[in-house]
Amino acid sequence: NAFPTSASADAERPAGHRTVTPSADPANPPMSAVGTARTRVEGPGKVTGSVRYAADEPMQDLAFGWVVTSTVTRGRIRDIDISAVEGMPGVLGVIDHRNAPRLNLEAGSFFGPDGGMHLLQNDEVPHSGRPIALVVAETMEQARSAAAALRVTYDEEPHDVNFSLEHPAARPATSFFGEDATVGDVDAELAASAVVVDERYRTPEEHGAAMEPHSATAWWEDERLQVIDSNQGPFLVAMTVATLFSLDPAQVRVRAPHVGGGFGSKSAGCGPQLVLAVMATTTLGRPVRVTLTRSQVFQTVSMRPATDQRVRIGADADGRLRAIDHASAFEVSELADYLENCTELSNTLYAASAIRTRRTAVPVDILPPYSVRGPGATPGSFALESAMDEVAERLRMDPLELRLRNEPTVGPVSGLPFSRRNLVACLREGARRFGWVTRDHRPRTRREGRLLVGTGMAATSFGAGALPSSASITAETDGTFTVAIGASDIGTGARTALSAVAAEALRVDPEQIRLLIADSDLGPAWSAGGSRGTTSWSWAITEAAAELRSQLGDATLPLTVSFDTTESLGELPPMERHSYSAVFSEVTVDPATGEVRVRRLLGMFAVGRVINPLLARSQLVGGMIMGLSMALHEEGVRDPATGRHVNADFAGYHIAAHADVPDIEADFVPDYEPGDPSGIKGVGEIGTVGTAAAIANAVWHATGLRQRTLPIRLDRVL
Ligand code: MOS
Question: Is there a catalytic annotation at residue 685?
Answer without folding.
Answer: yes
